[in-house]
Amino acid sequence: MRTRALAILVALIPVAAPASAPAQAPGIAQTQGILTIFGGTGVGTGTVTVVDSSLTGTLAVSFHGDPAAGCAARDVCGYSGTILWRPQSQSGELTIFSARRGGSEQVGLSLSGSDSLLPTVSSVVSRARAGAASASCADTNAPDVGGFLPAGGGRVTVRALTSASAVLTTRCAGPLDADVAASLPSVSLPARALARGHRRIDLGGTRSFAAGGFAGTLSSTLALHLGGTTSLSPRRTPPRGRTVAVRVVSAPLRVTGATGMLGSTFAGAGEPDACAPLDSCGLRGALTVRPRPVQADGELMAVGPGRRPLRDFLKALGLGRRGRVRGIQAFGEITWQHGGTLATEVAQAGVCRDFEALGAGGLALDLPGRGVHLLAPDAALHLRCPGPIPAFGSGFLASGALPPDGLARGRFTLGLGGNHAPREDDGYSLSFGGRVALRIQRGRIHQQILREPAGSVSAASLGPQLG
Question: In 142-204, where do the E strands start and end?
Answer without folding.
Answer: 151-152, 155-158, 187-190, 199-202
